[in-house]
Amino acid sequence: MVFAAPNEALARAEEVLDADPPPLHASVAHQVIGIWQRDFGDMRRALAHLRRARGLAARADSAEREADVLATLGVALVHSGRTRDGLAAFERGVARGTGHTRARVLYRRAYVWWVLGRHGEALEDVRRAVPVLRQANDVIWTARALTLRATVHLALGAVERAEADFGAAEALWDTTGQEHDKADAVESRGLAAFRSGDVPAALRLLDEAEERYAKLGTPTFMLTIRRCEVLMAAGLAPEALAEADAAIVALDGIGGQSTRKAELLLVAARAARLAGDAQTAIARAAVAVRLFAAQRRTWYETHARLVLIEARVAAGRGSGRLVADAAAVAERLAAFGAPAAPEASLLAGRIALGLGWTADAERHLAVAARSRHGGPPLARLTGWAAQALRARAAGSTRGVLEACRRGLDVLDDHRMTLGASELRARATEQGAELAALAQRASLVSGGPRRLLVWSERWRATVLSAPPTRPPADPVLLSAMTAFREIAARAEEARTDGGRPVPALEREQRRLEREIRSRTLHMRGEAPGDGNRFDVGRLLERLGDDIRLVELAVLDGRVHVLLCGQGRVRRFEAGLLAEAEREAEHVQAGLRRLAHPGAEARLPMVEAAGARLQELLLGPAAAQLGSGPVVVVPPGRLHRVPWALLPALRERVLSVSPSASSWLRARETAPPPGGRHVLVRGPGLASGGAEVPELAGLYGGPPRSQDARPGARLRTPTSIARPGAPTGLDGHRPGEAEGRTAAGTPASTSNGRPAAPTPPDGHPAGETDRPRDAGAREGMSGDDRSGETDGPTDAGTPASTSNGRPAAPTPPDGHPAGETDRPRDAGTREVVSGGRSGASDVRGGDVVRAGVPTVLEGDEARVPRVLEELDGAALAHIAAHGTFRADSPLFSSLRMADGPLIVHDFERLDRSPYRIILSCCDTARFASVGADELLGLVTALLPLGTAGVVACSAPVNDAAVVPLMLALHKGLNAGLSLAEALRDARAALPGDAMHRATGWAFSAFGAA
């Protein structure tokens, strides 16, 4: 009973003892209490009860009873760290027991061998026990023995054998009422899924096991250890560290098993190292090594020593002694048959390379590289990393790039098995070293074009394919509805009383954990599309007018890759760390400028913008030409307000997470129908005053919900005029939410001076533009054949009036992208400059498809908003925005019924073609993985959105209104988002507040 209904078994055992039972019955009762305390409580009490049970068995003169108790006592002694005494108890138990009882004793000794990491002895004892247990028709103990054997197989990397045993055990468990053992079987299947590389299935099964344990009311320390391993593999090391540390505290609180504490310390050390906290990793690993050594658990001690060496290297303590230590650890792990052996060999080789010991490095790396041909994805990745380092040491650029390509292909395949965008983003951290090695090799040999290819290879990969659409899971949908309700109530309580309500906030956090947990279970639906970034295709799309500026970071320095006019040039700029600090200063300045009376700070913010330009663009700033510019920054520079940089201030400017995502946005066609959706959330200081005006701009009186007969139409209201009272929307400390208020401007001229045109010839910096028909500047001889450097025809594209290169004209006379259908009522019309006719898909011409849908008041509820947003051509959302650095996919827009979060957007079949978020902090992201961003904008881009306007800082609420009106006026005139935003900035007054508001908004994508 103690494993079927633990608490009931404990109560029954205590009842037996209260009835003054005979020694045999009392022995059983004390043994049950000892088992309960051993596994779920205090080890000291467990040992006391088990010793009492053994004495009573001896008094009852029952050798079989005494053998059984000795086995339970042996497990308890080993778990308390007294390994020698525990093994001695097993020796006596095996000697005292016979037949069926001895088989049960052997099974428990096999379990102890597994705990000690002595897997050969464990398999031998199970081999002896299973036939006897089967012969006795002992279903429960046979299933336990098969589960244990499967777990040992997993520790040795034999996943197929483990899965066979798990399957056989589970079939037996289905015939019993052993609920605790059934939960353990589910947990073990989760471990098997993890070992085979299926992270979503592992998380789902471990969560299911946790639910089963919770119903039994039993602690789950072993499950925590396994869950932490999966979280680390998924790139969630900080969460794994927090869970492990919390479990250690809980275990200490009940006086629990010393063996489990050592294992939790080992997991915490690994998590701290992966999270970049080397000192914490060293501290946890050192204690784990001491505990494992005292417990005579050599297998685990060796693994702990590996983590300790890794942490010391991460802390900058590389030395010859560490090379020897890592090599010794690798040999011991290989002797154990441990899957971690290649990691230790890679570590030894990496340290040796750092010391210049090339011969030693080659020996260790060659051993590690063997793992690249088989095993789970992360083991193969280890092998390819070792192979890349071998090639670098041998001076083979081609070998480095081939190993990096193969390794990243392995990780690509693994990443696409993950359905959740968060897991896909975080998994890329595993490939950061390979991507960096390839970039360095490209920098030394290969020219700017190759560096661009490798910069793109592992940048913003999450945006390369839509995330798996969340399933129609009733539990998930119910949790999301409950989350919105609780979040809305908590926000209302804070607004009304000025104080948070702890009970509501606790429930909100619980629901967030449930939602996140269920979304992490999603498995990827399909492999990637296999498309590789093509420099020639990018240059063709850019033409002669557009410049794309991709910033690559190598060894802490920014390298500017300037693409356009058929070539790629490289310039060196400043240090990334200095640019990050300057960007934070700029953000602080913009926050202050959102409030009236801060005009004195404007010169300081502008000066910081000039410093940022020098650090981020360097000499490339003078080579941007006069046309549109696309900036592709690394993830760590996502908070830079690019429009503040002097060289970009008057330009048509857009931002993209990668050149590949810009190309996809450029080639995304708008949806049919051209629906416009305008959403006004609650609580804005200006009341979202631009929304009624925009409704009038896009077709007269707005329609609420849709144009069904009898629907009530709202008349546009007028916005605040200059001189209206100003007021600041309240921000809670530490949380940027909403917009602040101020006056509204008159419009100004849109005229701007053209930027200087660079002279003929080669500007400063590297170039891969051909000097003549047979030579290329800055290119090495091992570049791929067939690579083109520019247009192959005689002419260069002319630019359109919108500042974009005209597409080549095919023989039928229609420009590319233009349709030859009759121009009837279904065609779109350009309304600026007297032009008419079918619009260019990327020209930004708005589809005039009737009056817009306006959602406001109680109609601006999340389900209704999502229904209207799905497949819209243009959406404008005026609402409070909240960025969650701790959990970026819970960043939100406040609707009438609560927050609209990123997880909601991921349920759309197709997000709006263009979306304008006139809210604070909607362009803020969390930088995770190798070079990935999580946030509202990056959730929209893979779902069909080609262009977004969003804000990276708190802004003045009323100052946003004229900016938005001017922006939409440009869109209605056929401009792109970037062109309209440029003109809208120029239309604002020149005071500090309005200028800061304009700088805070950016156009993302290419629509």
From TrEMBL:
<dbReference type="InterPro" id="IPR019734">
    <property type="entry name" value="TPR_rpt"/>
</dbReference>
<feature type="compositionally biased region" description="Basic and acidic residues">
    <location>
        <begin position="729"/>
        <end position="738"/>
    </location>
</feature>
<dbReference type="Pfam" id="PF12770">
    <property type="entry name" value="CHAT"/>
</dbReference>
<dbReference type="InterPro" id="IPR011990">
    <property type="entry name" value="TPR-like_helical_dom_sf"/>
</dbReference>
<dbReference type="InterPro" id="IPR024983">
    <property type="entry name" value="CHAT_dom"/>
</dbReference>
<feature type="compositionally biased region" description="Basic and acidic residues">
    <location>
        <begin position="815"/>
        <end position="827"/>
    </location>
</feature>
<protein>
    <submittedName>
        <fullName>CHAT domain-containing protein</fullName>
    </submittedName>
</protein>
<feature type="domain" description="CHAT">
    <location>
        <begin position="853"/>
        <end position="1001"/>
    </location>
</feature>
<feature type="region of interest" description="Disordered">
    <location>
        <begin position="690"/>
        <end position="844"/>
    </location>
</feature>
<feature type="compositionally biased region" description="Basic and acidic residues">
    <location>
        <begin position="763"/>
        <end position="787"/>
    </location>
</feature>
